[in-house]
Structures are given as structure tokens and as C-alpha cells.
Amino acid sequence: MNNLCVAHRGFSAKAPENTHAAIKMAMNEPFVNWMEIDVQLTRDGVPIVIHDYSVDRTTSGKGKVKDLTWQEIRRMDAGVWKGREFQGEQVPSLDEVLQLVKGRLKLNIELKTSGDMYPGLEEAVLDRIHAHGMISEIVLTSFEPKSLLRAKKIDPEVQVGLIIDAHPRDLLSRLKKIGCSFLSIGYSHLDAAFADELIRNGITPMAWTVDDKRSMASLAKMSPEIMICTNRPDTWGQLFLNKIAPRIPFWRRKWRGWF
Hints:
eight-stranded parallel beta barrel, 259 residues, globular, 9 strands, alpha/beta, TIM Barrel
């Protein structure tokens, strides 16, 4: 059970998703190797870390991200919805998150877009990644193949991965056409044979979103190469602490030469 643990939007089961609190809480978990975050653009072109296309659910404000400026979103409370102890949390910029995790966690950055909703999103995100010297520490993922192709055109060296909650027959060929070395897939669509096929073709699978021990253990049995994305990295840690499998020292963990 050598699988890598990916904290979904930080430690989102306990802290408000995609905030400093959730990120720091995930970083304090010894079993977390990666973190998944979502990035969109404000009206004035600032890449920020937020999941929904509107701010309504996770902040004290209202409106679509693309229609609001960075300063308008910055004034919103992004934590109190999760609990009073998180009051005052803010929506972070991508810059802030990159600075916080550099050298400590790898990042799966979802380019959160639909069609041409965010012209220039890929360029803006890659610009900030290069500014922090972190191109080797990230993978860009998206439900939108065109967004991944744009990212590869801007920087052919960037690692990209498709997000999908299905398993169409031509999925492997789609991944190859895009140039993916990563697949983010709803865990119910992954089985041992498909995981093995992906790995043989140089594509690392990540299963999402897995919060119970039984499903985690089942995926781990399929292959040690499957990355497991969870809102509950503490539950993943309990599998090790309960000696279901030996813990692998961090310095020995690898994902295709990225460690």
C-alpha cells in the first residue's frame, strides 16, 4: 500500500475548502504528498483558488468569479460557512498557495473552466508557476481537453491530465492525443485492468474522491501507482497507523521521477 495521498481542496473535511486553513491542515498530515486545488480568473485577471463558478456557496459574497475583481473577492469571508473558528478566512490567490506549499507538497491544479469562459487562464496560471520555479512540482488538470491542449502549446514541458467521471472505450486514445501523463477519474470507474493499462502507457491514475477506508484499501490493492484523492487524509493515515500496510518513508516515495 504505497499509494500517494492527495488532499482534495486541502483538508476539506475539517476546514473550509481551498483556503489557507485547509491547506495548512493538510500540510500537517504526515501522509499527505499532494494537494488538489481549483483555479479560476477574476475579472481583472488574477488567478485565485476557488471551486465554484460563483462565490455564493463558500463565501459571504454573491456573484460569479469572472464578474468580480480580486479586491472584491478578497473582502469576502471564505471560512465562516464551515464554522465560527474559521471566520475571517479569505479566498487565496494562486501566488499565495504556491508560496505556501513550495518544496513541501506537489500540486494538482485544476483549470476550472467551461468552454471559453476564461480566456488566458492557462497562460496566467503557467506564468505564476514559472515565477515560483515550480513547473516540476505541479500537474495541470481539467475537464476541458482544449484547456489542456492550450497549456501544452504554451509550455510543452508541463504535465497535464484529463478529469473525467466515466470510462469511455476510447479514453486511452483521448489521453494520448492530448499528451496526458495523468488521469483524474471518479474512483468507481477504475479497476485493476484499466489501472495497469494506464500505467503501462505512462499515465498515472488518480482516483477521486475517496473518503472511506474500505474504498481506499480496495484501490490500493489494485495498484500502488494509483494516487488517492480524499477529503479525509486522516482516514488514509489511519490505514497505516492500524498496520493495514507498512508506512513508506517520504523520501522513498516516487511518482515517475518527481521526487
